[in-house]
């Protein structure tokens, strides 16, 4: 019988590994009479780092809970308390529709617990599609602008919507460091290759040239280096000699949209932890 | 430099296996000065049956080409000459949007060379989605009708559009033999399980109960027996103990839509041959 | 700097879910000055059951540790403390070599931390292979024996070796309930199909008949019902119309041996929990 | 009713594409009263190259058959006539047992129609394993030799056995151009990564560092450039943050041996055609 003040929240802890961490954190939750719906943790023994995701249910007093945790955790700890539930994203696009279409469908008809606040394109190609789903489309053309100027205009548009994440759904421009730093660990990209193979432009043509028998896609956080951020999810499909570069591109689109959507599902559920150039998914 | 009368057509041959069949057929094409763009054949040695798909380019005289083939092929042969290019389908739905959405996206933005002439639902749930893509939606409710009456009304609606294929995109009703026989080898269904496991209703719940570690989907032609027609394509994903039946259902939706779309791609390209309860895909 | 009394052990807990379980168990470990190398837990909210696998390192006082746990855990709890390290198995075979060969290779050259104490066959076909690896082979022919008599002779042979697990590596006979009950949750089988499809004999021929586009294999615990025990692991490969039943069988063998070996790897690491007809793998 | 002179042979044709090629080749086979058991062809329209594999059964007059073909095919054609059946290989190894073990098992117990004439190692580590299968093991140590001298000694050993192919089953040395040119399109390697990612040494450690979520293996022909020859087959498995580099290595071994064995299966069946840096598999 859910009481009106009963909430579900997600506690995320990253800290240096130490004896008794699980006991300390779960004791505090127990003391606060919070029920642990789901708990997952991981210790990276190579770097001595502890990760824990705790899904809690009960009546929260955020301030005292966090203060109690701060008293118990070692120095250098990061702990975040997120409410569960729907997140808000802004999607950046260029001309290709498939990843955007999948996000629009899943936002509207189920599959991703997400509100698409707006779609921003540097071309107008996808405006009609977006408006079919009653979502605002903003054209921010890069014509006549430096990369820095364009990214600054994008930031201004995006920030109006205060999104939790910025999703690059085949946005085909390289972002400036200023843009990336403005959204730390908040920008998610789908790269149309199995990274780190075929970094850079026209990966399907590179794949065709190399005669590979598998093509793939990679969803990753964007950091300063192009195509080099922490990988969240990857998947592949088998191809053969009958595939032209165009056939690879067509077949690859399904992989791209699936990988992006599955990665986003885990990000939205607060399951993905970034450290260094790696992710832990709990 | 394409001449205005140059066309591309697909010749499909099924006949009893015999010595020299490839030579005979390709000789006739050669004599007609048709270029073989792509040729694939298969002999089922168990049943002594020969299958060939020949993609031809040139100036066609259909009547003499087919007459020449009839003169050369053994008795009991079937040969069909199809023009290459866009096909037309009618899609049947109930309430679930994911397969339909993928077809709408691919028809409108690339990925399937298909015109969706209309979508017919036995519920009105998906009307808005269909109309967003400027495609006619027809509600043919089953309320108060026998199965036979309802299917008869569906047939009347479908036949107005003269589709090449009828695609069941999560249409959750069993079809009558009369319906199936009205569209021989033209009705394609996506079944939400890895057939022949979990035939029947609520396959994800069955899968959960059984504790499987993999779930899948099956695209198949519909014949008289429920869930028993010739399989075109199947795919799976791995699941684990953390998946509830609902999680399986959500994850399974992506597999369903991918499998349906990949199966349809091959059907539209005239690559799928049905014989008995099996398919040959050339 | 490892002290000579420092050991690694695995604590496995299954109990009714309750508030504070993780805190209670990890507190006790902390009090015993045991380091948690790795901890994984899962709550099945449907049945209200809590599962936890805790890999501990330190100086163990087993008796007081277990007594402390018994004092803290709710009624109906099961907790087991296993030493980490090499396990011992007996392998049952009939005539097919591939799964056995993979186990022999991995036991001798790495990949599975397991000692194969003996191989028992109801045919002598594989005797040479086993002896090549300097492992005892026992022939226990079923000729002239009832199923009960034969299984009784098998039990006598097996029990001499006191194995942790009995692995059926393509042992092609149905076991009696008496045999299965003699080794509760200790008998692991590889079934040459994607269960629950194609239960019973000649699954590859069944798969061929049905015209499936995917074949698979299933590793599972054996319980009373044939082919019906809790599933540990499954995998599949794609096939097409060019595969005869024999081709499926040949291709399937690699899947079978991979799935058996991967399942066994997790069982040996004490990661697999059985409850009802399901497994939780932590 | 097989006549004693009835044989099965495989005709492989590579030539510039032209109208009527299939007709011409199959006509000649028909004229020779050879039955086409299986025929596969492919045209690479980008380079205008035609590939055909024709499995024939009948009474062969090789000289006149080839002469007839030479009269009909365009200039620059390559046609080869191979007897069907068991091939002979020499396997090169260093210290790792898993790929070798799989080849030994499949050669002895079914799965690959191949005779392992000898195994040559630059270390003695695997001598016992090879001798368990009654196959000669030759140690050709590289100690104190230049790369050229060592490869020359290897060639001398290998050539004694006149193998059809040389299989590198985790042979961890770079081969000299002289070695590679001595066995054109006859040297097959398994590379422990998903090429072209992680070229070079310690690919699993590179993969771990990059934080990938998938690891793979690649079977390819060896040409002059290290890790750069035509790819025959690739496969992957999913990994996650819990995998250390060593875990990736262990899990990767199963992929390596499966990919090598599946690639070799197609090579032995004369299904793999090399052109430029690509393969066509018919």
TrEMBL record, chains A, B, C, D:
Catalytic site: 227
GO biological process: 'de novo' IMP biosynthetic process; one-carbon metabolic process
Top-level class of the enzyme under EC nomenclature: hydrolase
Keywords: Hydrolase, One-carbon metabolism, Purine biosynthesis
Single GO MF annotation: formyltetrahydrofolate deformylase activity
Catalysed transformations (reactions): (6R)-10-formyltetrahydrofolate + H2O = (6S)-5,6,7,8-tetrahydrofolate + formate + H(+)
PROSITE patterns according to UniProt: ACT (PS51671)
ACT domain boundaries: 10-88
Annotated EC: 3.5.1.10
Pathway: Purine metabolism; IMP biosynthesis via de novo pathway; formate from 10-formyl-5,6,7,8-tetrahydrofolate: step 1/1
Record flagged with keyword Hydrolase: yes
Similarity comment text for this entry: Belongs to the PurU family.
PANTHER family attached to this UniProt entry: FORMYLTETRAHYDROFOLATE DEFORMYLASE, FORMYLTETRAHYDROFOLATE DEFORMYLASE 2, MITOCHONDRIAL
Listed HAMAP family: PurU
Primary role: Catalyzes the hydrolysis of 10-formyltetrahydrofolate (formyl-FH4) to formate and tetrahydrofolate (FH4).
Protein name: Formyltetrahydrofolate deformylase
Gene: purU
